[in-house]
Design goal:
Low-confidence stretches of chain B: none
Strand content of chain A: under 5%
Number of strands of chain B: 9
Order of helices and strands of chain A: HHHHHHHHHHHHHHHHHHHHEEHEEH
Number of domains of chain B: 1
Helix content of chain A: 55-70%
Distance between the termini of chain A: 21 Å
Mean pLDDT of chain B: 90
Helix content of chain B: 40-55%
Shape of chain A: globular
Largest interface: A-B, 46 and 46 residues
Low-confidence stretches of chain A: 4-12
Shape of chain B: globular
Largest sheet of chain B: 5 strands, mixed
Number of strands of chain A: 4
Structural class of chain A: mainly alpha
Strand order of the largest sheet of chain B: 1-2-5-4-3
Strand content of chain B: 5-15%
Oligomer: heterodimer
Number of helices of chain B: 11
Mean pLDDT of chain A: 91
Radius of gyration of chain A: 24 Å
Distance between the termini of chain B: 37 Å
Chain lengths: 553, 245
């Protein structure tokens, strides 16, 4: 059947075209991909982390600057993934590029680890919906309506059981949405994006028109504390204010980087994207820049209204109270009075002192954070299907439900994996950014592979659109890959040496549980790959053939 | 037997056997044009206008049994297409004969969308109006498409009779194009382009068809979209088929 595709000879010169085969309408357009990546950045998570952890744990840091520094580094990472995406326009994430450049074994093992890590981050997002979104909402409404019931709900939802069950509910919802089809998923995300965008405009307006005096007066009315009491309470616990410091801002970069990593994840759905060269360019690089600017802007506005020292002090009191309740630190934070941690959402609710605005802001944050969940599951689902199609994974991973027409096996394995992590997050302590260390190694490998790909796999590179992009006579993907690899290596060192954010996976003091998880995955991945290769060989199938094909575009 | 004749025969066999299997399949594309335009079939065979595959449509409720139906007849399901299109389109391949069968579910989704849910009546093909629309929705026509359109216009009369399979129902065509500006734009652009490229008999029908479509009432959505006009792309880009995974 006809579409507007043309064969290489294209237009015959008479207004008549030639066509090689029935065309195909792919699912994801420019706006879908942009929303996918912006959603995976999750402006809500970035703002929440920036404002709670920046001034409190990295005194002197300017989260807006940290965000922009992270944006600069991520632009090189995004440009390299863009090059991979147009070289291999397939779904399956880093597995596709690594398996076809470095080798299928390496590609499989690293993508297995990546898949498990992303399942964890889907669960993390679900937990943040509960804490940053719902708990903050109940706490803020509770104080505004002087309702002990809402305040107790704030504490209950943020309890381990509350986080697990409500978070699991959001994960299941994401599984159901993806089961209903990618077109529906993109349609729902588009509507939610509109809501999140409108809510963000309201949020910015509240900050622009809000003033510090009103905020402090409202804060005192809500908690019984003055701003000075919060600050002196934190100082007694060991917090000290600090002037602007570039080095502190640089050190804090790893926090806004966590959400910004999401901006390149449309590489995972590359095969489903229309006009992949144009769409991925705007989708990846556009998402990094756009979200970075919004996050930085909100930090500047928040600091003007809430005050740098106040944010630092109340955040510090909250964190210390969490780590060591015997310090009574929560008496100088919002937990002691309204039950919720002093996330940005709580502070903005206190500033607005208006139920409607509180609802809008909370809904906005819940929506921003929500984007992470189905998108991460969609990514891991695609990786599993790619394994299956390359015959590295079981055939069943690529099975499609006759009822829904969607790959339900892969979707629900991903969802189930995220629920397992939900349990660990709720009931066991896992350092937030530790697994990012492994992710930097995996993505860093993709960066290094991009450096050598034009030489090592010249035949593949020469037929790729990426070969058209050069800088000073060198392949652009090699240059961006080198800078991207250096950036991710730097981030790895920073995470390794930062006990607040992550810390070392292993040291003379001991080995962390996350290390054993990662090591187990490496062993499992290697054994699986070697076993499958032998098994397929006995079936008369050479799985390496799948990795020798020339890309079409 | 020429390529197109062999494909037509296979399409007919599949459609008949599907009926007995409890599945509704109807032909579209060039094979359908040959089946519907019997008087021109010899001409098509002589030109050896070889379609590349068989194009069929079905209902959503029948898709659950498609795999089994085609498997029993020696066809393998293309898993990549299956996952990528999520039940909206299937590709079956017969390794022995080399025949590919594309099956669309509920709608033809290419440069424009053509809803066929209520058009799966009697006969081996979709009604002639839908066959014509399936060609007129193409933004970049090939020689084969032009031949197919000319063939349909030469062998069918224009009229208002929705029940006569040999009459192209102008009311249906004009109504559908009057509700979708983008589809109207592509279809009328193609008709104007074809005026100098088809035989005189077909040209007269094309002129009448163009007049009917242009003078028919238009929906509010059509009018709103027409205000933007060609400044915004009005069709969907159709990609070259390649593996999704």
């Amino acid at each position: 059947m006809g579409g507007s595709i043309v064969s290489s000879d294209g237009n015959t010169g008479t207004g008549v075209f030639s066509r090689p085969a029935s065309g195909l309408i792919r699912v994801a357009g420019s706006s879908d991909v942009f929303i996918f990546n912006v959603g995976l950045v999750s402006i809500g998570i970035a703002i929440a982390f920036n404002q709670l952890y920046g001034p409190s744990l990295y005194p002197g840091s300017a989260p807006w600057l940290s965000t922009l520094l992270a944006v600069v580094g991520m632009l090189f990472v995004a440009a390299t993934f863009y090059a991979w995406s147009i070289t291999f326009p397939r779904s399956g994430g880093v597995y596709v590029s690594l398996s076809r450049s470095v080798g299928p074994g390496v590609g499989f093992v690293l993508s297995l680890i990546e898949t498990v890590i992303l399942m964890y981050y889907a669960a993390l997002a679900a937990s943040l919906i509960v804490t940053v979104g719902l708990s903050s909402f109940f706490g803020t409404v509770g104080f505004m309506g002087e309702s002990d019931t809402f305040i107790s709900w704030a504490a209950n939802t943020a309890s381990p059981a509350g986080i697990f069950w409500i978070g699991t509910g959001f994960l299941l919802l994401a599984g159901v949405l993806l089961t209903s089809g990618t077109r529906r998923y993109f349609a729902v995300q588009k509507v939610l994006f509109g809501i999140a965008l409108a809510g963000t405009v309201v949020l910015v307006a509240v900050l622009v028109f809000g003033d510090p005096d009103t905020f402090l007066a409202n804060f005192t009315a809500a908690t019984g504390l003055t701003g000075d009491q919060v600050i002196s309470g934190a100082q007694d616990l060991g917090w000290a204010s600090a002037p602007f410091s570039f080095s502190a801002s640089w050190a804090f970069l790893i926090w806004p980087l966590l959400p910004l990593l999401g901006a390149v994840q449309s590489v995972g759905i590359g095969g489903e994207i229309k006009s992949v060269r144009k769409t991925q360019l705007y989708g990846m690089l556009g998402a990094v820049v756009a979200t970075g600017l919004v996050i930085a802007l909100v930090d500047l506005l928040a600091t003007r209204v809430f005050g740098y020292d106040f944010q630092g002090a109340i955040g510090y009191n909250s964190v210390v109270g969490l780590v060591d309740p015997s310090t009574n630190a929560w008496a100088f934070s919002t937990e002691g009075s309204i039950g919720a941690s002093p996330w940005f959402t709580v502070l903005i609710g206190i500033l607005a002192d208006n139920l409607l605005i509180v609802i809008i802001v909370m809904a906005t944050f819940v929506t921003w954070i929500w984007f992470w969940i189905p998108a991460e599951i969609a990514y891991t689902t695609r990786t599993m299907i790619a394994w299956s199609f390359d015959r590295i994974g079981p055939n069943r991973l690529g099975d499609v439900s006759k009822r829904y027409g969607t790959p339900t096996t892969a979707i629900w394995i991903s969802t189930a994996g995220a629920i397992v992590f939900m349990w660990f997050i709720a009931f066991q302590a896992i350092a937030l950014l530790t697994l990012i260390e492994a992710l930097t190694i995996i993505w860093g490998t993709a960066m290094i592979a991009a450096v050598v790909f034009p030489r090592m796999r010249k035949a593949l590179f020469d037929v790729s659109p990426a070969s058209e992009q050069k800088i000073f006579g060198m392949p652009l993907m090699s240059v961006t890959g080198a800078v991207g690899a250096a950036f991710l290596a730097t981030v790895l060192v920073m995470l390794w040496n930062d006990d607040i954010a992550a810390g070392p996976l292993f040291s003379a003091d001991g080995v962390r549980g996350e290390f054993w998880l990662l090591l187990s995955l490496v062993v499992l991945g290697v054994l699986w790959y070697v076993g499958v290769k032998a098994y397929r060989r006995r079936q008369g199938i050479d799985i390496s053939l799948a990795f020798k094909q020339i890309p079409i575009e | 037997m020429s390529g197109v004749a062999a494909l037509s025969e296979e399409a007919h066999r599949l459609i008949d056997e599907a009926e007995n299997y409890g599945i509704v399949l109807r032909a579209i594309g060039s094979v359908a044009v040959r089946l519907h335009c019997e008087p021109s079939s010899n001409d098509m065979d002589r030109r050896d206008r070889v379609p590349k595959d068989i194009d069929l449509v079905t209902r959503k409720r029948d898709r659950r049994r498609l795999d089994d139906f085609f498997a029993l007849r020696g066809y393998e399901t293309d898993r990549d297409m299956l996952v990528a299109m999520e039940g909206t389109r299937y590709l079956f391949r017969n390794q022995e004969t080399g025949i590919d069968v594309d099956v669309w579910v509920d709608e033809l989704n290419l440069c424009h969308r053509l809803d066929i849910r209520h058009r799966l009546g009697a006969g081996p093909t979709l009604p002639i109006e839908d066959l014509l629309l399936s060609k007129l929705q193409i933004v970049e026509l090939t020689d084969g498409d032009i031949g197919d359109i000319g063939c349909m216009l030469t062998t069918h009369q224009l009229g208002q009779d929705a029940d006569d399979p040999e009459v192209i129902d102008l009311t249906y065509l004009a109504g559908l194009l009057g509700s979708d500006w983008g589809f109207w734009r592509t279809a009328t652009k193609n008709m104007e382009f074809l005026l100098d490229r088809v035989e005189p008999g077909a040209r007269d029908h094309l002129t009448a068809l163009l007049a009917a479509v242009n003078t028919a009432p238009k929906s509010a959505a059509w009018k709103v979209r027409s205000l933007i006009g060609d400044r915004k792309q009005w069709w969907q880009d159709v990609d070259i088929p390649r593996d999704t995974y």
